Write the structure tokens for this entry.
Amino acid sequence: MSIAPAAPRASLPSTPTDYASLIGGNRVGAAGHVSIERRNPAHGVVVSRYPQATARDVAAAVEAARKAADSRVWSGMPGAERARIIARVAQLIDRDRAGLGLIESLEVGKPIGLIDREIGGSVALWEYAATLARHTYGDSYDQLGAQTMALVLRQPVGVVGMITPWNYPLLIVSQKLPFALAVGCCAVVKPSELTSGTALRLADILIEAGVPPGVVNIVAGYGNDTGRAITEHPALDMISFTGSTRVGREIGRLGGEALKKVSLELGGKSAHIVCADADLDAAAEKVVLGFTRNAGQACVSGSRLLVERSVATRFTEAVIAHAKALKVGDPLDPQTQMGPLVSEAQRDRVTGYITAGSDAGAKGWSREAGPEAALPGHFVQPTVFTEVAPSMSIAQEEIFGPVLCVMPFDSVAEAVGIANGTIYGLAAGIWTRDLDKAFLFGRSLKAGTIEVNTFLAGAPELPLTGHGQSGVGHEKGRYAIEEFTELKTIQLQFGSAPL
């Protein structure tokens, strides 16, 4: 795992940063609002305050987006002009990447030395989405008869409510918002109440880039009130949600009752499959990255390790050696490779699973705590379980922490059976030098993203798709156009219609 050695040590702010919502092109500050306070998860210090959106704020945000959509102030703009503005947003995120990275380090607990790659990924998403504004195509039909032809138009779905999680605040907004904007949609965005800072700071960037008032509205609040109000509002045409499968089911139900379009990017229990013929050194390093990046708080986290039995002991020892060498600690230290979990509740959830794994008979190894033990934060050490049965809760349920379950296999069929044996189907990693075997795994695994001899690589051009209970729909890539548009058929008759 590479670290930026030249990065300076960051400091806790002397006072919290106060943020404002974006509604109808106006910034709405704390006056008249209850503040949501965000404490740094490593130090327990309040670093951010967000104005909690009221019911009136949500109504105003939706009304502004609806007005912008109906007036076609954005969708009626030439695609080339929308592309220019979206590309300008990418440039401004790039300009402000250090400040945005610091916000995420302070609010999420991400290591400051690793955050630049994530902000760069957000820049790349906005850059790529800008190109799609000029490439949203329909079809023409000229073989329907001598005096008949038809057009199939692809038009923006309208107003999209976007509800995003706390683990990758800017990146996940960037997997949704620029693609919706590219095809002409308007939006109401609600980031997580735990990590709203970068989304609210993005509001300034959108204004500076020239996004018209009302096209994007961003409000902070909790899921059970602000999120539900957005989901249930009749003036919204679509809901795009990233988060847990449990909440996704509820949003899917509410959206279905209202006949809204719903896109859900949900949980995962991704498997690394390591074959005996693989580059085991490279695989061991990536396996550790896969379950400790962002302290394991990622839907695509590689939380299951399926390793061919003939190399299982040796490979597991290599994984433990890499995990033991990991620098866990203060996320403001540029040398830190893994920080704390996002909250006390998340820490308790993960430690509960670790206890459950031991109680079920799995054999656990955990890294010994170092200087981070002196910090008041929500730290959980990287933990590797062996002697895991595929039916155990730690092998079936999304833990969302730095916990890896090791299970040996003897054949491709056995590995596929174990890998496909959960309710999820988000991602998988395959490690082999045998191209035939790689494609056999790739075609057999029930997962939307399968990486061979790499992990967590990603690219804006490639869609993120959940199979099973990992989601409905897809994000990123040119296929995102399908998510945020709907089709319209126009049939033309020339001359007199035949009797």
About this structure: The longest strand covers residues 148-156. Confidence is low (pLDDT under 50) at residues 1-6. The first helix runs from residue 55 to 71.
